[in-house]
Amino acid sequence: MEILGYLASLLIGLSLGLIGGGGSILTLPVLVYLFGVSPTLATAYSLFIVGTASLVGAWPKHQEGLINYRTALVFGIPSIAAVFITRKIVLPAIPTDLFSIGGLAVTKDLMLMVLFAILMVAASISMLQKEKPKKESAPELQRFNYPLILAEGAVVGVLTGLVGAGGGFLIIPALVVLSKLPMKQAVGTSLLIIAAKSLIGFTGDLMTGKAMDWTLLLTVTAIAVVGIFLGNALSRKIDGAALKKGFGWFVLVMGTYILLKELGFIPSAA
Question: What's the sign of the alpha-carbon dihedral 67, 73, 78, 84?
């Protein structure tokens, strides 16, 4: 299982390098099902892995001038604040046992896994949607819809804080629609936002005194970073649109499987 886990860690980075996203949506299931990490602790590990991988991925975007730092600041501040508060205060305050529905005991870990599975399904739908070709137009004056950007940033921050996923599939459309960024610049800016909020959110976990398996965490992170470089190299040779669609179907199947498994429709292996 550990060998499978390390191979899957490479896939996390490959996905980020090839299609600019999606890798973080694999991190939590890899940690929980292949490495046996508890869901609550796995969300903390995921923040570190996703944050570090996104930071590495953001560097070449910076070199190409594809990061809008003003937008990253406006969107990032509420997002970073929300993820830090969620990890430092909200998540530790959620009781281990929540309630029961019939014979199903709803625990904190179950709630996190179900929420994450729903997020996976939403992400897969976003990946499977056909992108409408847009005509290149002259850059327009950037105008911020501050109330919507602040609200969107806070919502993404809370989701990231709860399940440890970067939320790029939520951030990128918001940057395009609300901040009027070109798609390539939105992707680069999103990577920087994800890196900042994930790593700062992880500091919230450190401040709560959680015991961390640094050997596992740094090993998985290093393999994911290697995957990013491999993915960047392969992206010049592989059709990104077809790959994104195939990965979207994979995420949809995985998200549906996790949802059914956690709710007891699929029995656990003995």
Answer: positive
